[in-house]
Specification:
Length: about 290
């Protein structure tokens, strides 16, 4: 274990993390886990602050999980900013940064072991565009829960389908972990913070605002019912050079299934679009009817 700042340790093996957590647990401490892929921004740090409020011991994992990337995705070029990540986490009083190598997490190879299947909702929306993504994500989250044995784990609403599926996994597999959700952290102009925003050039950064604008347009039309809301949201994409809409959908937050036209109440609008070759997602709750 490497001493990074007072109290923050970087741990690369499962055995070391287990020992660290077990020691604190023996003293009666509660444990929170914040799973990340690094390249940390203020959205991640909001999760860490929440974890710090809720538990005695905070573990942040930094692991770019190959299992949740498709063959044509950005695994190789995914941003890695480990030193600055660890410094930011030390500044927030994180107890342990768990940064295992791929071999430590997948000793049988990334495709050779037991995996978690996300079920039918895992094949929709993000899962339709990124086959296998949610199986890979849930597999690593289940492993991290088994390794750190946290009392609670903190996720961002930014990845709404992810937090839905993690919550469902915890229920379906009877995992003794409480899931906490933190609202999406945005730039002052509304763009949701994302590690992938750094791929955007200046014009693309401007064009990327169409995602949040489409959500605002949908929200403004929510009183007129689901079809109007959808029409207004999609219309926001109009003619944007270099932007292509992947999906725009309104779901029931309880089931994550698309709402029917007679749906009234609190719904969740999900949007995904390519800005150049960068795939961005966003979402917002709306009150329909
Ligand atoms: P990632 O490193 O992209 O896998 O994200 C790690 C965690 O940070 C996930 O729970 C994300 O939902 C969360 N997260 C990412 N971006 C944001 C944001 N803008 N606001 C809040 N949480 C976020």
């Amino acid at each position: 274990m490497t001493e990074v700042a007072a109290g923050t340790r970087t741990v690369t093996t499962i055995a070391e993390l287990r020992a660290l957590v077990a020691g604190r647990r023996a003293d009666g401490a509660s444990v929170a886990l914040v799973p990340t892929m690094g390249a940390l921004h203020d959205g991640h740090l909001a999760l860490v602050r929440r974890a710090r409020e809720l538990a005695d011991v905070v573990v942040v994992s930094i692991f770019v999980n190959p299992l949740q990337f498709g063959p044509n995705e950005d695994l190789e070029r995914y941003p890695r900013t480990f030193e600055t990540d660890v410094a930011a986490l030390a500044g927030l009083g994180v107890d342990a940064v768990f940064a295992p190598g791929v071999d430590e997490m997948y000793p049988r190879g990334a495709d050779g072991g037991t995996t978690v299947h996300a079920g039918p909702i895992g094949a929709r929306y993000e899962g339709a565009s990124r086959p296998g993504h949610f199986d890979g994500m849930l597999t690593v989250v289940a492993k991290l829960f088994g390794i750190a044995q946290p009392d609670l784990a903190v996720f961002g609403q930014k990845d709404a389908q992810q937090v839905f599926l993690v919550s469902r996994m915890v229920v379906d597999l009877d995992l003794p972990v409480r899931i906490e959700t933190v609202p999406t952290v945005r730039e002052p102009d509304g763009l949701a913070l994302s590690s992938r925003n750094r791929y955007l050039g200046p014009d693309q950064r401007q064009a990327a605002l169409v995602l949040v604008e489409s959500l605002r347009a949908a929200e403004a039309a929510a009183g007129d019912g689901p079809s109007e809301l959808l029409a207004e949201g999609v219309a926001a994409f109009g003619d944007h050079d270099g932007v292509s809409l992947d999906y725009f959908v309104v779901v029931d937050p309880e089931t994550f299934l698309p709402v029917g036209d007679d749906f009234r109440g609190r719904a969740l609008v999900l949007v995904a679009a390519f800005v150049g070759s960068t795939r961005l997602i966003d979402n917002a709750y709306v009150d329909i009817g």
